[in-house]
Design a protein that fits this description.
The protein is an alpha+beta fold and 115 residues long. The chain is built from four helices and five strands. It is 44% helix and 17% strand.
């Protein structure tokens, strides 16, 4: 999971709500099947600026991988190999410029203290 720094800082619902949301992110990051990285604002322009997406991969070959992109009026599901390859490149690029999981938790802790 890669989350932009701005999403950690945009106050929605007040300080108490933000604190609980940040605590929930830390709780999720402690799960063995979750790797959380924060993409810092200082990363500058990057491939993720076009919008968020979710990639689903399945262990069975009978189910193809799917990329989901939500927009204002619905969700676009992409399943072609070209689309999957494109979003895999984007995800790998974002992972390479995001903070490490440990540094990401440190940033979340710092942002939490600001609230």
């Amino acid at each position: 999971m890669i989350e932009g720094e701005a999403a950690l800082r945009v106050e929605v619902g007040g300080a108490a709500v933000m604190t609980r949301q940040l605590d929930k992110l830390v709780e999720m990051a402690e799960h063995p099947c979750v790797e959380l990285q924060v993409l810092p604002d200082r990363a500058g322009a990057h491939a993720g600026l076009m919008g968020s997406f979710v990639m689903f991969s399945f262990p069975s070959e009978e189910h193809s991988d799917v990329v989901c992109v939500e927009h204002r009026t619905g969700t676009l599901y992409m399943e072609t190999s070209a689309e999957i390859d494109e979003y895999t490149l984007i995800f790998d690029s974002l992972r390479s410029i995001a903070l490490s999981p440990a540094d990401s938790l440190d940033m979340i802790a710092r942002v939490r203290q600001e609230f």
